[in-house]
Amino acid sequence: MNKPELVYVTYIRSTPQKVWDAITQPEFTRHYWGGNANVSDWKTGSEWQHVNKSNETWVTGKVVESIPPTRLVLSWADPDDLNDVSRVTFEMEPMEDEVRLTVTHDEFKTGSEMVGKVSKGWPHVLSSLKSFLETGTGLKIGCGS
Amino acid sequence: MSKTICLVMQPNGCIITPVVDEVFKALADASRRRLLDELHKRGGQTLGELCQHLDMTRQAVTKHLALLEAANLVATVWRGREKLHYLNPVPLHEIYERWIAKYERHRLQALSDLKKGLEDDSNTTK
Question: The domain that contains A79 carries what CATH number?
Fold first, then answer.
């Protein structure tokens, strides 16, 4: 059993349901994830895609585990390199008037290029998510189009 | 394409909670910054592993880790009986957005590059 490679934690003044919706509903995601969206019916076993403003798929995978609104596990791969698949886990834990959101990105393949790509992106996306839920405005994220 | 996708940060960046004081306090100590550097080099280290790489007593490392964890600069994961420590850069990113990004990011980057270039040249290190 390998150690997880990337673990991120942020505390957000919100509820697990709102954090869940912000991650899974395109009309919210587009406000803080550089205009991109996560698209799926979010049922275990379903496909999911991370798409840009022009609806081009940047990341794709399956919903490995879905327990709304507290736990979502996804497989994560570049559609041009489906063998380089990894795993992302979102955990939403209520703590008084806040939610502790933990994002774990692990199970990278040996020599994966994905780990380098996402380690710069996650802190930005999570800061922006926190800003969006607490202030209604996300941060500027250059995701291109 | 809707205009709402053009995101603008709020003028006063009110995303900062009181936790920001703890982050600055946690960073205001050379030993704790070394601990963060060590976790940046290799995430998922146990207390024992961290002690091996740092010239600090186990008690000191424990104390510093607790403070870093309280400031949310270190995230932990239990793996069986082992507690693994990770650098959590999210609060640093929030401070960056609040205190740096909105002020002249490009000029600061140019100055930073200049400093790096000049220092690298004189030291002949990379």
Answer: 3.30.530.20
